[in-house]
Amino acid sequence: MDPVAVLGQILVGLSRAMILFIVAAGLSLVLGVLRVPNVFHGSLYMVGAFVAWTVAEAMGGHPARLWPALVAAPLVTAAVGLVVERTLLCRLYQREHLMLILFTFGVMLILNDLVKLSWGPTYRSLVPPEALQGSVSVLGVALPRYNLVLLLVGPLVATALWLFAHRTRIGKIARAAATDREMVAVLGIDVGRVFAVAFGVGCSLAGLGGALVAPTTSITLGMDHTLLIESFLIVIIGGLGNLWGALVGSLLFGVAHSVGLLIWPQFAIAFPYAITAGVLLLRPQGLLRSVW
Amino acid sequence: MVTGTRLGIGVLLAALLGAPAVLPPFYVYLLALILVTGLLATSLNLVLGFGGMYQFHHGVFYGIGAYTLAIAITKWNGPAWMGMVAGPLAAAGAGLLMGLVCVRLERLYFGMLQLSLGSFVWIVALRWYPVTGGDNGLHGIPLPPELHPLDSAYRFILITVAASLLVLWAVVRSPFGLTLQAIRDNPQRCSVVGIPVRAHQLVAMVLAAFFAGVAGTLYVVLERSVFPNMLFWVLSLEILVMCLLGGWFTFFGPLLGAALVVALRVFVGRHTEYWTLILGVLLILLIFFLPEGILGTLGARRAQNPRVPVPQPTHAGDAHG
Amino acid sequence: MGNLLLAEGLHKAFAGFPALRGATLEVRTGEVVAVIGPNGAGKTTLFHLITGVLQPDRGRVVFEGREITRWPAHRRCALGIGRTFQIANIFPRLRVFDNVHVAVLSRHRKTFHPALPASRFAAREVWAILEHVGLADKAHHPAGTLSHGDQRTLEIAIALAGRPKLLVLDEPTAGMSPEETEATLRLLARLNREEGLTVLFCEHDMEVVFATAHRIAVMHQGRTVIQGSPEEVRRHPEVQAAYLGSGDA
């Protein structure tokens, strides 16, 4: 096997892993702080992609059309998430845990059909601006320019998240609320506000992931499904609420997917499952610690 | 069971048996579909309502049961009855596998992992064209000529569903059923009292999967087709909604929920293609306004054990049991 | 009269915090033993180690001469250790009758039986227990609707269903009114006297302790300061300093 091809595939896999990480991190954040696996997280990813497409289309062939798209998508998904959380979800925090999860299922069903209603069932594509087309030589390998961008954006987002969680006041409170929400409430902090912020950030990450992936794939109904499943698996093996775990899991999946494509293309999709099964057999509690 | 209810059920059964004589074929078909879906929902409720497990992708076992029968007949050229036995067994086997992986995990992981694994099965069915027919599924599955007329298929389904429900009823009233409910309420306490919680949950999953497989094979009898969307999570959510709507702490709740949801789906499907939106709205309305479901809200006392009368106490005299 | 239960040199740390630092405890057959100590002394942790909810970092637990240090909770139950919890830990959606019934079925090893109605098994035994603890008239009520005191009593009933040789109770009278407390104590004393049930409990309420226990163990900062008769404990200088001096609740 040609080592250059292998390296190229791995780099592509890593750039895909960046998107996985952004989405999985959002899911993990919500899971850690609110203890809810937000099932409509995947739908928001899809919304992000469609919104990015709409914004880019609206700007015609403008060379910088990607930037407003990358800003609009996370804002829209954060807004959607916040509206849902402040009006409905927050009323369920005192209820049985199962009801919270089922609620997110319900929102997923509704959101998916709303996307179908708004954009129709045909698929779209978002052509990246000329500056980001073509390929670039990295370590002797031809890598699509856009993938290189992803490889740079990923660590940026990761750093921003880390700064948010460890250096901002609200981030630190969110981390505390994840481990002990009663204590946080006792300290006089409005736990509801913390939940809202965490949820908003998580949803915006889903939208950002969708916007970032938009130029690389066809934007269709159903794109939420595979990504949600992969995010679930990443969060399971990486540990609920653990952002480092999300990173490790995403990298594993991204690389495994590429390796899978090289070795056994028809079954490449099985690789993430195989990894998860392996990890769970060895460490049922996940790779890294759960936050709670 | 109270005599009045026994009588009521007897009357209902008689009416259902006689239905093909008076109803137009479409309604017979609808009744059959409701029966099949009702069994599926009741099997889910064994682990969901009575067992407290986050069974988010129960449809997988339904699909596996159906596909096994379909494949047994069309690809392996086996006799139909063999497929009808293999279907539920394959589903039970899948339940065992899924259970072994998931049951030892905490509830939340259980649900998320099941959703993921189930989706994997869906993807396999979608892509494995030579065996499963890919995204078209398999159609025109040849069944024994006795089952070809709708009325015969209907009666076969009715009898099988009634028998299955009887078994499930017995299970829910049995010591196993009571233990399962205790595990739902407080698994830690069960453990302290000496109950191996995981083992019970595993058995419950296998049972539930088995009957979902039965429902799957009955679906093939009715439609003579299988579709990959039987394995898709929207169907699993539909069954969840059925249990919730009817009352997930009651035995007959899921049946009622199935009847309502199937009827609604058929009706809504004629006017719009946005059934999933309606389903989602229904689910959210249930969560906020009717969390105990119809039967659950109607009969607060019935919402515990399904009509098990508390045995009469022996009176002072024989102090020890 | 040998030791029914022996806990020796138990150490347990949680994320670096040492909850137990060499705690010991002995319980003889037929005794009522109380464990007391200020908050954070490690009483609940000790109980968790005895009943199998947690495993110690060091030390051992011996029951009837058998070392059970690493045994899981449900195996200890089969051996004859019953327990109740600090927070009412019942089956809220089940009726009172069923709460006890489940435990009885477990003891008879009938929990996997999938066919005959549950009511055919051991119903009389359940009624006997309910009458013993005084909950027979509430048998039909969902356990979640019971008053706090009744729920704690139900807990005892569930534990009794296992026909335990040793009953371990974690603050059995917490949150109870004086009447409920007295009723619970009378029940425990009666069970000890009439059934020969060995009772181990931990408590905050000093009156309760000194009135019912044959022997008292005092814990402080993860160690057992002394275990002896109420008189011995009352006079022990370290106890007076650590406990009564700090002004208990």
Question: How is this structure best summarized?
Answer:
The complex is a heterotrimer of chains A (292), B (321) and C (249). In chain B, 72% of the residues lie in helices and 0% in strands. Chain B has 321 residues and is mainly alpha-helical.
Give a structural overview:
The complex is a heterotrimer of chains A (292), B (321) and C (249). By secondary structure, chain A is mainly α. Chain A has helices spanning 3-34, 41-58, 66-87, 97-119, 145-167, 169-179, 181-186, 191-213, 223-238, 243-263, 270-282, and strands at 135-138, 141-144. Chain A has one domain. Chain A has eleven helices and two strands. The longest helix of chain A is centred in the first third of the chain and has 32 residues, at 3-34. The radius of gyration of chain A is 19 Å and the shape is globular. Chain B has 321 residues and is mainly alpha-helical. Chain B contains 14 helices and no strands. Chain B is globular, with a radius of gyration of 20 Å. The model of chain B is unreliable at 302-308 and 315-321 (pLDDT under 50). Chain C has two domains: 1-80 and 164-249, Rossmann fold (3-Layer(aba) Sandwich); 90-163, no CATH class. Chain C contains nine helices and ten strands. Chain C has helices at residues 43-51, 73-79, 96-107, 123-133, 148-161, 178-195, 206-212, 230-235, 237-242; strands spanning 3-14, 17-28, 32-36, 58-63, 66-67, 81-84, 166-170, 198-202, 215-220, 223-228. In chain C, the strands form two sheets. Chain C has a six-stranded mixed sheet with strand order 6-7-8-3-9-10, with helices on both faces. In chain C, strands 2-1-4-5 form a four-stranded antiparallel sheet, covered by helices on one side. In chain C, strand 7 (166-170), helix 6 and strand 8 form a beta-alpha-beta unit. In chain C, helix 4 (123-133) crosses helix 5. Chain C is globular. Chains B and C meet through helix 7, helix 8, helix 9 and helix 10 of B and helix 2, helix 3 and helix 4 of C.
